[in-house]
Amino acid sequence: MSATVETSPVAAAPRATPKRRRTGGFWRRVARHVMRDKLALLCTVILALIALSAIFAPWIAPADPYKTSMMRRLLPPLSPGYILGTDELGRDMLSRLLYGGRVSLAMGISPVILATLIGGALGVTAGYFGRHVNMAIMRVVDVFYAFPSVLLAVAMAGVLGAGLFNSLISLTLVFIPPIARVAEAVTTQVRNQDYVEAARATGASAPRIIVQHVLANVTGPIMTYASSLVSIAIIISSGLSFLGLGAAPPIADWGLMLNTLRQAIYVAPINAVLPGVMIFAASVSFNLLSDSLRTAMDVRA
Amino acid sequence: MPHDPVVEVSDLSVRFVNRDLDLQVVDGVSFSLAAGEVLCLLGESGSGKSVTMRALLRLLPDYARIGGKIRLAGKDVTTMTDRQLEAVRGPVGAMIFQEPMTALDPVFTIGTQISETIVSHEGVSYREARKRSLELLEMVQIPSAERRLDSYPHELSGGLRQRAMIALALSCRPSLLLADEPTTALDATVQIQILLLIRSLQRELGMATIFVTHDIGVACEVADRVSVMYAGRFVETGPVADVIGRPGHPYTAGLLRSTVHAESRGQLLESIPGGPPDLADLPVGCSFGPRCSQHHAACDAGVPAMVPIGEGRMARCLRPLLATAEAA
Amino acid sequence: MTDTHPSDTDPRDRGGPRQPILSVRDLKKYFPLRGPLGTINAHVQAVDGVSFDVMKGETLGVVGESGCGKSTTARLLMRLIEPDAGSVVLDGDPIGHGGITLRELRRNMQMVFQDSYASLNPRHTATEEISFGLRVHGIPAAKAREQALSSLRLVGLDPTLFADRYPHEMSGGQRQRVNVARGIALNPRLLILDESVSALDKSVQAQVLNLLAELKQRLNLTYIFISHDLNVVHHVSDRVLVMYLGKVVELGPVDRIYRAAAHPYTRALFASRLSMNPALRVEAVPLSGDPPNPVRPPSGCRFRTRCAMAEAICAAAEPMLSSVADAHQAACHAVIPGSGHSQAEALAHAA
Questions:
Q1: Fewer CB in a 10 Å sphere around the end CB: N or C, chain C?
Q2: Does the beta-carbon distance from C122 to A15 stay under 8 Å?
Q3: pLDDT digits (tens, 9 = 90+) for C207-226
């Protein structure tokens, strides 16, 4: 026998009495919840540090990330003048990691944003109008969804050719189907709520209802899901660079650095692992933060 | 032995505790129930009636903290291990729910589910259990019971599903039946069928029965005694005819007055002002005080005690209505 | 809710007080049941040929069990779902071709839903929710907010406390008041109340019923009051419409329906009401079984499978809604003279 309890604390607790504290808008509540979650707070700090150091790389980097030196190849970390050592061409590791963050973060975030806009629009349209519109959009999406994401990205990048811009396009295409699926599912759910029906009963047009009623209720779940894709995007884009399909040398990119330093793994293991550590830190932080966002949005009251 | 109550509850309290809040959902509830007696817990949403009933079988979520004493058939439930609880749920106390789909497993036939329960609790053979299942379905008046044994829950109509759930609850011959708003989701013509069925089964099998409802009409149809709950506490308890006929607590009186009935047509209803209480922010004194028309300063001094107000009747009020009525 | 003929002075009135505000004829909606391949296997006959008038200023109660089509009828009237057939005329104007637009219809007719939580957008404050409909009808933002605040005041919610509250910051009764405020904000003439007080606690339900009675007077409203609660319908209605499996089975003044129902289903429904007196308990089941499946309704009279008076004619022919007394109609062969039912014969002889 399963027991669902009538007086759940959520249902019983907040009865509005005039003197009660104001809880504010939805996003403020979510923010407050995330702030109380220590792990999520730590992830936010880590991501902020990575982002800031990437943005300010030209000012804080101790050396030119492209300046090679055959004399100082593969210096170990904590060498004088090279805190994190040097790579296989004698370039300063710390500077390269800082600059690499620019490319890797951009490659992690921008395809997800693009895919959220396109996939979200497709999914919301399919979900709201249902029936034939839904069939037409979602079947096409499903075709793409059927391929494993890495394979699809590699195939796309292969067809389009190497280069950062092309790998951005292929990553965007990879993320459109899953985001569209999620957007369609939550929109279908929201669309069947009484308040949407009540909005229709006022005589409002479909675009108006979508903008004012549906979007407000689906952006939360869609963004939560999208934030969990950022880590995957970072990993896949690093993978593409690793395979030579993304960033091309001498650009500093974590994936590419991992690739080129691979040969030196026995000589300078710590140097070789450092880009991987950055990828790991960024993607895990994004994942944990997105988990926390999800639970924050589940809280109704 | 025969006069031992089936249920003895004293000073039961339930708190819901999690990171964000600590709510006293049930507070100081005491009652006892003899075999063959029907008690209705009457109250509005959030009054704690359902939690009180579920506490008897400890069917509460992890974040619930139970205090006080609960004895079922002489055994202390509060100290039982999970294994011991399983032996109590079913043979001692069985429960029926508002929504039968939550109690019936969608992937097994009605017959399998009932037989399974009988076998696991009584260790009889499947053949024997299936025979008993058929008898049970006949007892709850399911037409063409033989065929229905092999039906899945979704193949039954709402009324039949409710009957099947009752059969499942009765499968281990419980001495206590707990019913949580079992007719609320049903249509009027089906509701009365199920109420009459429960009433006759209860009499026939001599079960002690606790019926949780928000509907005074349901209480009038099935109860021997009624306990009215408000903000987690009993505010009035007594024989059903007395409580409905001459309510002693202002809340009971208000509830009765605000219930729509045939004579009220075309008039404004006398409603209870204000809204349901906030369990997180209850007043120091009587929790009904802020909405009460009889409210006076002494009511805010502390929570009033349950005081006897007549033959078998108690009310948690400093100035029960009966007293004033008798004095006048 | 006494009838004071307020429509004499209502400037919105077009056809005079005696013209029905709403005239529904032969409304029909069959929902297709699709198989796994999208083929239509069967139809749920949700609403099947429903006709009735709603008079200005009255409250028409609609009762029936789940699946009888009362909520579908409400949604058909609001055009939230498209009817398969039938016509709806609002104060003399048909909807669509040559008549008034859908927008115009919805300006004049609004609906309040059952679930106070689900029918409010969780991301909107009370004011945002109410002013949405006003904005839709072209009222500028500042004015819409002002009107929303006065609607809140009308439903007894102090704007200084409730204007910026979200649904989860209100109690069920307060939320339902916001729903009512949204319903009346467009100044409609007809309000459809679909189980609007059913989910509320009794003490709060009484408050909302009183509010509805007061608003009806003040705003000169007409109500279609849909509910499964016969006591509540008795309390509010002037006339009552009884539905069973997508059909109207009885329609008449509330006193006639409650005292001298002509249809056996109506009588059984009323006999199933719980007594409010422990000394007068219901002792025998008034009606056995559940309502049949609306996918395959019985032939002839749809109630015959549960009816104690059913005869051969009831399976053979469908009874039409026929007059049994002044303003009182029922669809039962037993009360239609010359139908071939033995009781109708007796009726004819007695006359």
A1: C
A2: no
A3: 999 999 999 999 999 999 99
